[in-house]
Hints:
ABC transporter involved in vitamin B12 uptake, BtuC; 15 helices; 78% helix
Amino acid sequence: xxxxxxxxxxxxxxxxxxxxxxxxxxxxxxxxxxxxxxxxxxxxxxxxxxxxxxxxxxxxxxxxxxxxxxxxxxxxxxxxxxxxxxxxxxxxxxxxxxxxxxxxxxxxxxxxxxxxxxxxxxxxxxxxxxxxxxxxxxxxxxxxxxxxxxxxxxxxxxxxxxxxxxxxxxxxxxxxxxxxxxxxxxxxxxxxxxxxxxxxxxxxxxxxxxxxxxxxxxxxxxxxxxxxxxxxxxxxxxxxxxxxxxxxxxxxxxxxxxxxxxxxxxxxxxxxxxxxxxxxxxxxxxxxxxxxxxxxxxxxxxxxxxxxxxxxxxxxxxxxxxxxxxxxxxxxxxxxxxxx
Length: 340
């Protein structure tokens, strides 16, 4: 009986650890069976193209969660980088404006990281303030108007980034996938990558192990800003436009996907690839809701329900862990044997 219970617990832990894959599979199968016109190349390509920007940005944001911090400025960095990328194209071309936009995102991340580590200000306060400042900068730069391009070379770049090179895959989607895989391997297969988890899991222990926790925190904020810059400028290049509300909805979307994907806000747990799968799941869900002809309120409700269920599950797991923490396993086994 004890062995059977242990096997059941292992199975439940395995399912919980990989829950995002089961959720994605369920949502995809449901939409495939019931959503009208879901399973066709055009629609599925639309799904992958829609998720590309947020998947790119979520790489850095997931790492922010892994080290136990928060970055509320990613949405405004997306818009800021997109505006710079298109605004400066007229003067220095895409060859200069795109790197400039990406570097600008990284510099904003650097400022965030320095304020968090050196000034000892909460990342919530720092990035909330940065979000407000950047919003003002964006509106000052643009005069409150969206930026768009109408030149032949801009349309050529737009067509290139939006054309399908493999089934469901465009160049922008391929870039996002490559970066997700690269960062996943870096975090899970290298010593430096695993150090990020140590910093988030227990900063004091990481410090005692000789890890420069401030350095890792700063690097993570730089990565977060850089990835937001990459996502924003690539989206702007494909659409040849940078609307001022480009990154408005991305923050809550990415936070939800990161949590649903299993990355803990407390730090030390999670993964970039699982966040990617969560974003893809949400896009499949949203796409199916549109195909059913349902309104935006239904999309918000269902996404909120999934997020609430995941958070509730995390709370239950944490409670059970705290309940048995410090208990001697051999005594628990003896107690179960007596009870049986």
